[in-house]
From TrEMBL:
Keywords from the named record: Membrane, Transmembrane, Transmembrane helix
Record-linked InterPro entries: RNaseH-like_sf
Record lineage: unclassified sequences, metagenomes, ecological metagenomes
Name of the protein: Transposase IS4-like domain-containing protein
Membrane-spanning ranges: 71-89
Organism: mine drainage metagenome
Length: 108
């Protein structure tokens, strides 16, 4: 419906393909606009992606550290790594994966 509102699609093409669409039911106790609730729901995808990067690409799901100061330093460095991951992702624009870029940089 957003595409119809932005005039990217017509109502006729929407009605034509509406049989192919799935249905999504969200139950919420938020006193918000339904569109805002849907957008909040869609944002969770980015959080899940960040955790996936943190766990798999950065391999930072286990620390084995016992000292609090070392653990805080470890978490800070992982946060910086995650930040750099997303900065690289914004710069490469689909030509390479972040893993490819990190592999190339590791050879320097």
């Amino acid at each position: 419906l957003i595409r119809i509102h932005d005039h990217a699609r017509s109502r006729a093409s929407f009605a034509e393909k509406s049989g192919d669409f799935g249905k999504l039911y969200l139950i919420s106790d938020l006193d918000e606009d339904p569109e805002r609730i849907y957008r909040l729901y869609k944002q969770r995808e980015y959080v899940e992606y960040a955790f996936n990067v943190y766990k798999n690409d950065l391999e930072s799901d286990r620390s084995y550290l016992r000292d609090d100061h070392m653990l805080f330093s470890y978490m800070f460095l992982n946060l910086l790594s995650l930040y750099l991951h997303f900065q690289i992702l914004n710069m490469i624009s689909g030509k390479y994966s972040v893993r490819d870029v990190l592999l190339i940089l590791s050879r320097i």
